[in-house]
């Protein structure tokens, strides 16, 4: 079966949340676990849109908490595909606090490996990504490097 390749921008997802009191940790900042749940959902939707099927999170790399978020902050999460393998794809999710002025401050960046699932929840082929911009090509090149590191960690048991 030949899968139709898709452009990166065909599966970009933008999700918005407001930080509520139940999302705060003991320091009055956004609890990292809440953000992790939100960005995992964004990554999953990106992968589902790209594969047009079911997916599962296989791993998360570089979950970097760069800046805090506080109660009533608007959180904008943007996810997009950066690489496709045979049955998996990498999805980058950037999270921002958006000020009333519209200015965005990056608070988190994460890279997810998502696996496409077919019949009986077995891995299935992923359509290739079509890269159209220099930024997308750079992301894909960096994703290939991260993949090599992931494979080395897997082989060495880390």
UniProtKB/TrEMBL annotation:
Residues annotated as domain HotDog ACOT-type: 9-120
Keywords: Hydrolase
SUPFAM superfamilies, per the entry: Thioesterase/thiol ester dehydrase-isomerase
Alphabetical list of PROSITE patterns matching this protein: HOTDOG_ACOT
Family indicated by similarity: Belongs to the acyl coenzyme A hydrolase family.
Name assigned to this protein: Acyl-CoA thioesterase
Natural source organism: Ohessyouella blattaphilus
């Amino acid at each position: 079966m030949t899968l139709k390749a898709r452009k990166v921008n065909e599966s970009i997802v933008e999700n918005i949340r407001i930080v509520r009191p139940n999302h705060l940790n003991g320091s009055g900042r956004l609890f990292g676990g809440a953000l992790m749940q939100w960005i995992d959902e964004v990554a999953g939707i990106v992968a589902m849109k790209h594969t047009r099927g079911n997916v599962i999170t296989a791993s998360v790399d570089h979950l970097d908490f760069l800046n805090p978020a506080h109660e009533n902050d608007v959180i904008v999460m943007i996810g997009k595909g950066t690489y496709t393998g045979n049955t998996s794809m990498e999805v980058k999710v950037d999270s921002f606090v958006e000020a009333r002025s519209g200015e965005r401050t990056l608070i988190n960046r994460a890279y997810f490996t998502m696996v496409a699932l077919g019949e009986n929840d077995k891995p299935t082929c992923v359509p290739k990504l079509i890269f159209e911009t220099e930024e997308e090509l750079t992301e894909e090149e960096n994703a290939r490097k991260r993949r090599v590191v992931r494979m080395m960690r897997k082989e060495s048991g880390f």
